[in-house]
Amino acid sequence: MLKIFKKLKQIWQKRPVLATALSFIFFIVFWGAISLSGEKTAVDASSLYTVKTGPLRISATESGTVQPKEKIVLKNEVEGQTTIVFIVDEGTQVKKGDLLMELDSSALTDKKVDQEIMVLSAEATFIDARENFSVIQSQADSDVDQAELDYEFAKQDLVKYVEGEYPNQLKQTESSITLTEEELSEAMATVEWSRKLYKDQFISASELEKDELSYKKKALDLELAKRDLELLIDYTHKRQLAQLRSDVKQAEMSMDRTRRKADASVVQAKADLKAKEAEYARQKAKLEKIEALLEKTKIYSPVSAQVIYATSVNQGGGGHRFRRQEPLKLGGSVTERQELFHLPTEEGFIINTSIPEDSIDKVKVGLPVLITIDALPGTVYSGSVDWVSPVVDAQTSYMNADLKIYEAHISLDESEDLGLLRADMECNVEIVLAQYDKATYVPIQAVLNVEGQPTVYVVDDDELEPRIVGTGLDNGIIIKINDGLETGEIVSMAPPLEAGAVPEKIYEQLL
């Protein structure tokens, strides 16, 4: 005890508010300890209960709705928000293929016309790009063929000159020199003979002069022929050879440039064609989507069934009415993916309900259930828990973070009164957690948790004596007593609250 006072003093110096609260709790515990030290407490005769033994049913009661056993759910597949221009009356028995709802399609119709124009424009652009690609590809092939031909001709011209023209020119020039040398030799012989004849006065001086002039001409021709040979070898041949080799190189480079340019043009034209084709396909897809949406503005029944509006169904089960939507009606609006109709596909019903978090560990599949219908007073149906969701209902938790419920389905047993049921009827569900033929029980408020132990206060000589008991299931009103009490004993339904105060060991945790 002294240790607690010392710690309270330390806390008071650092955190006076917390110290005040702890002092108050300690006062309650201390007062309770004093009250219990004599193990007797005065009896409040106004709140006593006699322990009973007999049949006991522990159950959890929830609200629910009647739902078809199997059903097809039809949803709105039109984008955005759309107005209802026709809707079949709820409860109508329709046949497969009957029109259930028609949504306003005027906006989609206008959009379809605009999109058809876009498709035609995209198609024209695509065709133009396709033709342009064909022309560019053909021109590219032609340019490459011509460049390759020029390159081949340039190589052939080089070979022709090196192996044909130049050897011919060289041989012709050399032949001309040889011929001129022979003619010069003959002219020299003629001059020498003419000089002898002139000396002997057989010819005149003019004839000798003519022969000498012919000799000089032949000598000059020989010199020119030799100069032509030198020019051919040292200049003309080298220049022509360099020019032809350059022509080959230029033709090869031109061919490479032409190929690159042709490839680039074809690639660009092909890319442009693909882009135009993709745009055309995109515009067609948009048109097809609009046409599909137009078809979906009319909703037909896929089966023969009775029409149930989805907005009339308690989607969350358990009677959580805040989750209901505005009823479907002519002129009303619906949104994309909104549930529209529930069409039962099999005779029979199930019960949709919700299990709160504090009861989920008690409710198991197969437990018996009693169902009473609000609209059918006096009629009780039986069934069993068929399915319990393993996860919290997300929409309910989103709307109320503190409310955590689990959806559950209850199957109904065969009964002649099943024909009275209708979809969406409200009902009360009593899930029987345990059924005892003979059990000892007391009101739940008679049991107090004292230092972690379930305790009741038994009347003994007009005073209250605390007694630890073993407890079982409870239904919020009655709790089963496994051991510690006997039938006929009297307990208090208003035990001293100070007995359930925080024990001294809690101080160590709080500090």
Descriptive overview:
The chain is α+β, with helices and mostly antiparallel strands. The protein contains 6 helices and 21 strands. It has helices spanning 2-14, 16-36, 106-199, 205-296, 394-399, 505-510; strands at residues 41-42, 48-50, 52-75, 81-87, 93-94, 99-103, 298-300, 305-306, 308-309, 333-335, 339-356, 368-373, 380-388, 405-412, 426-443, 448-450, 453-460, 463-468, 470-474, 478-483, 490-492. A 6-stranded antiparallel barrel has the order 3-11-14-13-12-15. α1 runs antiparallel to α2 (16-36) and α3 packs antiparallel against α4 (205-296). The longest helix is centred in the first third of the chain and has 94 residues, at 106-199. Residues 1-9, 11-22, 26-41, 314-323 and 504-511 have low confidence and may be disordered.
Give a topology summary.
Blueprint: H1 2-14, H2 16-36, E1 41-42, E2 48-50, E3 52-75, E4 81-87, E5 93-94, E6 99-103, H3 106-199, H4 205-296, E7 298-300, E8 305-306, E9 308-309, E10 333-335, E11 339-356, E12 368-373, E13 380-388, H5 394-399, E14 405-412, E15 426-443, E16 448-450, E17 453-460, E18 463-468, E19 470-474, E20 478-483, E21 490-492, H6 505-510
Antiparallel strand pairs: 1-18, 2-21, 3-11, 3-15, 4-6, 4-10, 5-8, 6-7, 9-11, 11-14, 12-13, 12-15, 13-14, 15-20, 16-17, 17-18, 19-20
